[in-house]
Amino acid sequence: MSDYRDIFRKPETKNWFKAAIGMKITRDCLLDIVKEATQAFYHAIRKEINRKHGILENSVCSQCHTPNVLPCETNNKCCTYRKCVFHKIHKPLNCPSNNLCNSICKEIVSHHRFRNCSNSHSFQGPTWVYTEASKWCVQSWQIARCYLSNDGYKDVNQAEDADFNGIVNVIYNCEFFQRYFKDDLTQKENICTKVIQV
Ligand SMILES: [Zn+2]
Ligand SMILES: [Zn+2]
Fold first, then answer.
1. What's the 167 CA to ligand 1 centre distance in angstroms?
2. Which Pfam families does the annotation name (predicted)?
3. Which of 5, 62, 103, 164 could be 27's S-S partner, Cβ–Cβ 3.0 to 4.6 Å?
4. Sign of CA dihedral 102, 42, 190, 184
């Protein structure tokens, strides 16, 4: 047992512990921001869709699945060339509520920081594989999920399940979140890139 105590007395252990606690506190604060901002983002999207297409902000749809509204294109990271597995069951179609879900899909793309970025593998526009479009109108986290990185977030069904990196990815990848930060997130080096590196 004395060996264990020695480990805990070591300064590097103490520093590691402090860093871990610090990260936990930061993550919890960011989580609150993300939850609030995600809701605000949904309303901003709906406002924009109303302005562009006249679809009322209180009209909702729960019928469309993500493959229904995501065009079958191999550059979206889900679709496979020729026989697409992603679109095997649900084919692309127009949302019965005046194309509402298709419009939300387009707004998600247009707010992604790396929507036009195709050379860096990890950042290529939204991640569609985890989100469920049929819940976009009732659970704004399903929209936020499109801004997670492409791996390891399959079971993150609510904001509370997201780890530190996931939360920072959502904040960084979705340009809507800029308004919550003083730091200019368009700069190559910014608070988010530094945090992700750490
Ligand atoms: Zn496809
Ligand atoms: Zn729909």
1. 28
2. DUF4559
3. 164
4. positive
At 56-112, the pLDDT tens digits run 999 999 999 999 999 998 888 889 888 999 999 999 999 999 999 999 999 999 999
Q: From the CA of 81, how far away is ligand 1's center (Å)?
A: 8
Specify whether the CB–CB gap between 67 and 87 falls below 8 A: yes
Domain residue spans in the chain? Answer: 32-197
Helix (H) or strand (E) holding 28: helix 11-53
What does the DSSP assignment read for 114-150? TTT--SSTT-SS---SS--GGGTTT-THHHHGGGS-S
Neighbour tally for 165: CB within 10 Å: 15
Per the model's pLDDT, the better-predicted residue between 153 and 93 turns out to be 93
Determine the distance separating the centroid of ligand 2 and the alpha carbon of 134, expressed in angstroms. Answer: 7
**How far, CA to CA in Å, does 72 sit from each of 22, 83, 88, 93, 104?**
43, 10, 10, 11, 16
Structure token digits, residue 20:
């871990």
CA separation for the pair 70, 76 (Å, rounded): 9
Residue 122 confidence class, pLDDT cut points 50, 70, 90: very low
